[in-house]
Amino acid sequence: MQISTILKQLLKLLADGEFHSGTELAAELALSRSAIWKQLQALSDLEVELHAVSGKGYKLPQPLQLLDQTQISPLLSTAAQPLLSCLEIHDVIDSTNSYLQQRAREGGESGLVCVAESQSAGKGRRGRLWVSPFGHNIYLSILWRYQDGPAAIAGLSLALGVAVVNALKALGITEIGLKWPNDIYWRQQKLAGILVEVSGESGGPCHAVVGLGVNFYLPPQQAAGIEQPYTDIHSILGKNAYTRRNELLALLLNGLLPVIAGYEAGSLQNCLAQWRSYDCMLGKAAAIYIGELCYQGTVAGIDDNGLLLLQDEQGGIRSFASGEVSFRPS
Ligand code: BTN
Predict the structure, then answer these.
(1) Which of 50, 92, 185, 214 could pair with 1 in a Cys bridge, judged by C-beta atoms 3.0 to 4.6 Å apart?
(2) Which of 67, 97, 142 gets mutated to test ligand 1 (max ligand atoms within 8 A of its CB)?
(3) Is any ligand 1 atom within 6 A of the Cβ of residue 226?
(4) Domain covering 5-59 in this structure, CATH number
């Protein structure tokens, strides 16, 4: 869903995070004061927080940069450009992943990319909700079709984690790491997550919807329900980082599209060394949960197939293809 042009213009005026009086907003948009007030109400329907101070006017608690194709396209690399068949920017959507699943069923082609300002039903892994407030974060999904079945793209999600870390490093973020299989962490707090949804017969063909959420700025109110330690780029790079949201989107597309497009059986080998260099769990005490079962031990890295290795107290090593890993206080 797209918001109205007037509401978009109002948001662009308020995007600087400074105070704007009702009179000024009305003059800029050639609307009456009461029409402005209605638009401000519409903003609160989008759960965009607004500060109103009498005598000063209205301001957003934090400035924001709206997603803008004209800022993203010129930053796309020559490798990524031809792989992008279409970039759709939505204001409000249930989930960019669900949307691309639907588009895939309707015949959508490889390289279809969907980003959104907000998601009403953002999906995390293991059926969790991905908190997706308006205008601040990255919610990105990419559709790709493969000739072979899902087995041929085993390990894709690990390769994607490496691409995301590299994009975040290019933005200037250091001390970044991967928590198996593909959570992106900064100093033991989650910064970004990847959800890969693969559909297709075992013999192929299949398609993947790669979903990525990056916390750029999480308003405290909306983040209150997040049940794990988390961080955002605003906290890492400072509050002016918001001006780089479109740039980060381009960096992510530049990193992800070539990996997704070129992935085939055996590709994991090309990124294992980098994945291992970003491993932020290596040597740490951890627990892995598989349904009702819980295994505890020390993380011993990943094997050549991307399986997690956990060493128990007796020194035995067990490998895991799936499961939910959490840090344990050592
Ligand atoms: C995780 O749990 O770590 C994965 C989070 C993935 C969230 C992204 S946001 C864009 C895309 N659309 C969704 O509904 N989910 C993914």
Answers:
(1) 92
(2) 97
(3) no
(4) 1.10.10.10
Q: Is the CB of 97 under 6 A from ligand 1?
A: yes
pLDDT tier, 227 (very low <50, low <70, confident <90, very high otherwise) = confident
pLDDT band at 26 (very low <50, low <70, confident <90, very high): very high
Is 126 a residue of the active site? no
Q: What is the mean pLDDT of residues 160-172?
A: 98
Domain range annotation of the chain: 5-59, 69-276, 282-327
Whether residue 94 has its Cβ less than 6 Å from ligand 1:
no
pLDDT in tens, 83-134: 999 999 999 999 999 999 999 999 999 999 999 999 999 999 989 999 999 9
What's the pLDDT score for residue 330? Answer: 53
Based on the residue annotation, tell me whether 244 is a catalytic residue of this protein: no
Ligand 1 geometric centre to CA of 211 (Å): 5
The third-level CATH classification (topology) of the domain covering 282-327 is SH3 type barrels. (2.30.30)
Distance between CA atoms of 42 and 63, rounded to whole angstroms?
Answer: 18
The three-state DSSP-derived secondary structure of 168-234 is HHHCCCCCEEEECCCEEEECCEEEEEEEEEEEECCCCCEEEEEEEEECCCCCHHHHCCCCCCECCHH
- The Cβ of residue 306 has, within 10 Å, a number of other Cβ atoms equal to 22
Q: Of the listed 103, 179, 190, 245, which one is catalytic?
A: 190
Residue 47 Cα, ligand 1 centroid: separation in angstroms?
20
pTM for the model stands at: 0.96
User: By the 8 A CB rule, do 217 and 137 touch?
Assistant: yes
pLDDT tens-digit profile of 57-78? 999 999 999 999 999 999 999 9
194 CA distance to ligand 1 centroid (A)? 6
Evaluate whether the domain defined by 69-276 bears CATH number 3.30.930.10.
yes
What is the bridge-based pairing of β-strands 183-186 and 176-179? antiparallel
